[in-house]
Amino acid sequence: MSDSASEETSESMADEFDTVAWWTATAVAELGEDHALPAACRGSGSPAGLDWLARSMGLTSGTRLLDSGAGVGGPAEYAARSYGVRPTLAEPMEGACQAARRLFHHPVVVSDGLALPFADETFDAAWSLGVLCTIEDKRGYLAQLRRTVVPGGPVGLLVYTRAVDELPDQPDGNAFPSREELLADLRATGLEVLDETPLADLPGSPDDWDAAADRVEEVVARRHGDDERWQRAQAQQETIGGLIGDGLVVGVLISARRTKN
Ligand SMILES: C[S@@+](CC[C@H](N)C(=O)[O-])C[C@H]1O[C@@H](n2cnc3c(N)ncnc32)[C@H](O)[C@@H]1O
Q: Which one, of 22, 107, 113, lies nearest residue 65 by Cα?
């Protein structure tokens, strides 16, 4: 990738994951607390998906859970409320970290998932939702998740996979692996797959959940719809939504565990 292409890529990633993340937290403040969780989970699929992952990973009260690439912190908050886990969030975008701090009150570290600032075996479990498909060095990223959980500890992933060899549209900053490439990367980094399911096989979000997230998006669009950063983020989301709708990109939930050696 040329320097100007990579600058463009990081610009569109920053629009979506940094600027819009902060605008989202501001809109929640206007609409009320009950909008926080649905709005902050928009990047990661349905409550049913989070439940599937939490149960297959055996998350339970007191589990020290790392959420790498945590975004605005919705999934971590969901796991804390529903399963009593103690989450720590790591996320490279400052705006998303500030939004997560403002909406929920878990520890948040501004950090690249390729260089996590935690000692080996700090966590009982780790998950990473919708992040691997934005990373070129997938094995380096998975190795960091493996390193920071205890031996035998669960590692959960939501990965958007490429169902065809070539995509008609390649959204900036995304590198979707095929399912086979993903399984090979997991094997190579010492993560044993215990279970997997396509996200689409699980129930969608409840209507009131979707409606709350929609209201937050409407406020953000009303305030910032003329801003080219909102327009770039929107175009990016529409491209990815189109690929998923056409079945060319498929969301897969993976429950894995760190092998003991
Ligand atoms: C689709 S969003 C998902 C956010 C959140 N996990 C969720 O499910 O709501 C992808 C996230 O990956 C983060 N990300 C991108 N590159 C990353 C990296 N190198 N390390 C960790 N996170 C990264 C982005 O900043 C963004 O917050």
A: 107
Q: Atom of ligand 1 at shortest distance to CA of 41? A: 9
Any idea what the CATH number is for the domain that residue 94 is in? 3.40.50.150
**In-domain check, residue 210:** no
Residues with CB under 6 A from ligand 1: 17, 41, 43-44, 68-71, 74-75, 91-93, 96, 112-114, 129-131, 134-135
Identify the residue whose C-alpha is closest to ligand 1 atom 20.
Answer: 113
| Interacting residues of 99 by C-beta distance below 8 A, sequence separation 6+ | 21, 22, 24, 25, 40, 72, 73
Taking each helix axis from N to C terminus, what angle separates 3-14 and 228-245, rounded to the nearest 10 degrees? 90
Its domain, for residue 47, covers 3-204+236-258
CB atoms within 10 A of CB 181: 14
Domain count, the chain: 1
CA of 17 to the centre of ligand 1 (A): 7
The pLDDT profile of the chain, 261 residues, written as one tens digit per residue, is 333 334 444 676 777 788 999 999 999 999 999 999 999 998 776 899 999 999 999 999 999 999 999 999 999 999 999 999 999 999 999 999 999 999 999 999 999 999 999 999 999 999 999 999 999 999 999 999 999 999 999 999 999 999 999 998 778 788 999 999 999 999 999 999 999 999 999 999 999 999 999 999 999 999 999 999 999 889 888 999 999 999 999 999 999 999 976
The ligand 1 atom at the shortest distance from the C-alpha of residue 18 is 25
Compute the distance from residue 225 Cα to the ligand 1 centre, in Å: 23
Which one-letter DSSP state was computed for residue 41? Answer: T
